[in-house]
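Can you give me the bound-state structure? Components:
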Amino acid sequence: MNLRRLLAIAYKETLQIWRDPRSLAIALLMPLMQMGLLGYGVSLDIKRVPLCVYDQENSQLSRGVVNRFTSSDWFREVAVLQTDRDLRAAMDHGTCLGALVIPVNFSRTLYMTGQDSLQVVFDATDSNTTNIATGYAQGIVAQLDADLAANWRGAHGETARSIGTVDLSSRVWFNEGLDSRNFIVPGVVAIILSLVGSQLTSLTVAREWERGTMEQLISTPVTGLELMFGKLTPYFVIGLLDAVFCLGAAAFWFHVPFRGSLFTLVLTTALFALVVLGIGYLLSVRIHNQLGASQIALMLTMLPTTMLSGYTFPLDQMPEAVRVISWFVPARYYVTILRSVFLKGSSLLDMAVPVIALLVYAAVIIRAAARAFRKSLD
Amino acid sequence: MNGVPPAVQARGLTKRFGEFIAVDALDLEIAKGEVVGFIGPNGAGKSTTIRMLCGLLRPSAGTAIVAGYDIVREPETVRAHIGYMSQKFSLYGDLTVAENLRFFGGLYRVPRAELKERMAFAVTMAGLTGREDALVRTLAGGWKQRLALGCAILHRPPVLFLDEPTSGVEPEARRRFWDLIHSLAADGVTILVSTHYMDEAEYCNRIALIAAGHLIAIGSPGELKRRDLGGALVELESPQPGAALAALHGAPGVVEAAIFGDRLHVLLAPGTDAAALAPLLAAHGLTATPPKPIIPSLEDVFVRLVSRKPAPEAA
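Here's the bound-state model for the whole set.
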């Protein structure tokens, strides 16, 4: 391999990227757009669920219950209803996702029978949101129950302590606020690298075939390795710059806690960049057509990175078969690494399995890409 | 040839694409410093032969020695010693003149100390002085072709392969291009250039005629024209050339008839009187100018040689 030839190709490729608006847009604008969209738009938390309040009793106790709901982070009051018909209309119009209905004899029933009879109605067209909101509501009601019971016992001269209730206090580690943004934003880097890395490189060799410049190129003494590394160098640099931008945005703009080492992050990012660049290049060499190569690159990198890397959809909730498939998705390892480095501050040693998996992938794909190129028109 | 090994020596060079035989056992020898024209209709195997000689296609059989290296065993060494211009323009349109030159200079590892001077030479040769920073896609055809030639000779290759370098270029630019070819040949560069312009063939030291994958004749333009066509060649004009051609084909005393522009060239069997043609045509209700004897052109020779070959099997 000759450095002069490699650099000649890298320089030529850089000029071409610089003069191609489409490539520039993918390289520069895509990260900005994706980071904005995914950083702000995607949140798996359900907060401030719009709630209608239909308090038929309007007593001190019932207002206390309403307050427990609306003062929490999970629900916000959007309307106060007066009739059953209002309730129906509010749900139909989508004014609220849920309604808290307190029956007219709520307090009396509670004191006489010891049973409360709250009703929370949810619009279950989005069953996932409903499930989560139901969970929140049950939590609030359970707390209400416990407080009422303690009051009752207090009023009857018993202390809560003497009964020995269990005080369950759960603590969440690493992502203390259970903020899904902390979970998602680091993963965005994997998406952007997949997109930029494989899309841009999938065009690079195919374009030479389409424009006929390949015939001239292979009539020179350039070797396949020089061509590959020469062409990949500028894209590798762009990929790393994009990654630095995204990681910086994650840490400083979205305030995702960064607890690991920068070195670990850069090293693993470079490994993942090699994997996606290699996939793009391999396709570009195999498919002498820009459109075909870029479409297949999209299917082979973006789709699995979005669906099967655990980036948004937790892998441990997937069926066994799908989980097995995910072992073959390189992004899976990179997303795991990103989260561990950011939130747990893991070292390379802690993440030996995903790091080695990425290494193996990078080696296999780059080797395949290097062998795929034939300096021949046959 | 004075003990100097030939610059190109092909032996039984064959290329098959599936059932189709594009080039069939071609033998060719080109001496150092020769300009050899490769003439033949489209699909005759010119490009395929050139691509094999450049190491871009692997021969199905046979081999060739180019600039002293075997194209099958040492294709990389061959590539370092040749310059190639493909049929389709294949420089980078989104790079400037200077950037294209520097790129190929880098690929051929032209010594840095010499690169500047050689780039300047190529720019001057292409007539692009002052337009070094123009994007190549903005250049007209003739300039593009000369720049492509400039890129192909940056590393001073001893052997040049030019595949229809002048196709689609206006006549004035074609003539300038041939001047460049001759000045390169004067410096000792061996050049194999394919073309389908018969007039360009006259500029070559020797011509290789190729049809249906076979080399059917090779020699200087003069030699080929002096070849015994086996009879006298006459030319006549007819207002109905198609009908006249049909009438003449297979007529007694007519060996071969072909249309050249608005004229008919008729090769007569020895001893046939040209005056016999007028009554022959009149019998078909056709008129024609009186036949006059002409000196055969390369095209006549080509038509004759191709027709003498047994018809190739359909591809």
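A couple of observations. Chain A has a mean pLDDT of 84. Residues 180-211 of chain A form the longest helix (32 residues).
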